[in-house]
What we know:
The chain has three helices and 26 strands. By secondary structure, it is mainly beta.
Amino acid sequence: MTSSGSERKRPARKYVIASLVVASALVGGAAVASVSGDDAKGQEQRTDGLPQQTDPITRQDLSSRTQVDGTLGYSKERKLNGGAPGTLTWLPGTGAVIRLNEALYEADGAKVWLLYGERPMYRKLKAGDKGPDVRQLKQNLRDLGYGAGLVVDEEFTSGTQEALKRWQKDHGLKQTGQTGPEQIAFAPSSVRVQKKEATVGDQTGPGRPVLTVTGAEREVRIKLDVSDADLAKPGTGVEITLPGGDKVKGKVASVDRSASSDEKDQGGGQEQSAKVTARVTFDDPAQVKGIDQAPVTVELKGETHQNVLTVPVNALLALPAGGFGVQVVEGGKAREVPVKLGLFGQGRVEVSGSGLKEGMKVGVPTT
C-alpha cells in the first residue's frame, strides 16, 4: 500500500480518504483501494484512544452507481427523399410529428401519406406483386381498418386491391387499387421533422431529399468507457436528471458495442479513451422536458449485493500488516478488526470479517 507524506514514522492507524477510495476498481469481487492521509492530521486527538466520531455497521442492499453525462435528443436522424417527380406544394413545419396515416408532404397538390414499415416504398404495388413491401402494405391496411379478414402475407391479392381502394377513397385519391411512392412513404414509426431539405416550389423526385426526420420519441445518448459497458445492458433501469433538475426513470434501449475514441480527447496530445455509445429511453415520455441536444445526467445502478454489512468508506483503516480493517468501539474500548472488502457504492463499502455485527459502532474521521 502507498501513502502520501514524508518518510518519518507515522501512526499505524490510517483512515482511507473517501474521495480517493471511490476511484477504486473491483477485482474478482474485492476492492483495490489507494490510501492517503491519517486520522491525526488536522484533528484534535483523544487521550483515551477512542475515535472522535463513530458510525454504525448497517445491513442493507448495496448498489454500485455510476453517473455519466448524456445528451437529450431524438432517435437517429435520416433523410427522407421524394417519391414521384413533381413540384413541392406543401411541407410540414420543423418540429412537427407525423404519425401513421398522416401527410408527410405534398407534390403537385397530392399528399404523400406515412405508413409504417422497415422497407422503403421503392416501386408501384399492384395485383400479382409479391414481397416484404406487399406485406407491409397489407399490415397497414388491416391495422387501419380497411382489410378486415385480410391475410397478411407477401402476395398482393384481389382482397389487397379492394382494401387499398377503400383507403384511396377515404384519402380523396383515384380508386385504382394500386399505389406507389407518389402516394405512400414507409417509415419504421412516427417521425419528427428535424429540418426541411427543400422549400415549397422546389422540384422533387427519387433521390432528392425533402425532409430530415428523426424518431418522434425523446431519448438520451450516453458514452461509457469500455470497462463500464456492462453497466448499460439493454433493459437496465436508470434515473435521468433533466435540464430543469427533474428526475425521471428510463432504461437502456440498446448499446453500440463498436468502441470509438472519445472525441473530446482528440487533438489534445493525450491518450484517447475507448467509448461505447448507449441509447436510453424514458418510461414516461410525457415527463420529458428540455430542448433538443440539452445536457442531462444518467445514473446507472450497476451491480447490487443484497443484505450485506456496510460501513462508510472513510471508516476503513490501512492496517500495518497490510489489508484493511475497521476500528470497532465497544464497552468504552476500541479494537481493530480486519475486514474483507466487497462492493463500493453510495459512499459505503461492503465488509465481512470475524465478529462483525449489524449495529456495531466503528470509528470514522470527523468532518
